[in-house]
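User: I'm preparing a small set of examples for a lab meeting where we compare how different chains pack in three dimensions. I only have the primary sequence for this one, and I'd like the structure in token form so I can line it up with the others. Please keep the answer compact; I'll paste it straight into my notes.
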Amino acid sequence: DMEVGNHWRIGNARQIVDELTKIKGKYGDIPVFLMGDFNSTSAHDPYSILTEYFDDSLTVASEYRSQPMATFHTVGQAPADGGLPLDYIFVSKNSAQIVSCEIICDKDMIDSTDHLAVITRAEL
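Assistant: Understood. Below is the structure token output for the 124-residue chain.
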């Protein structure tokens, strides 16, 4: 059920924010990176919760080496046009300069997995 899944992802996003608060409380204002498959696009609540505390490298990079696109696809087939990413590299707000970001969409990636890699270069 999509609604139940979204409810769980919202709870997970809130847990991540709680952990970020603990990390910052213990270690100060250090950069905290968070990455992976979030099963949510920028149109969903979990993404909105996370981006209150984290910058999305796909939206704040100084240089884009690819256009944002769907990062989920059927193995062996390119992602559908106009789709949104599910995979992200986040960094805690205002803690690092995101120099570049790229979604790798080549034949090897398409043929080997159902998600595309996101690569970010950051300066601390």
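A couple of notes for your slides: The first helix runs from residue 2 to 27. The first strand starts at residue 33 and ends at 37.

User: Perfect, thanks.
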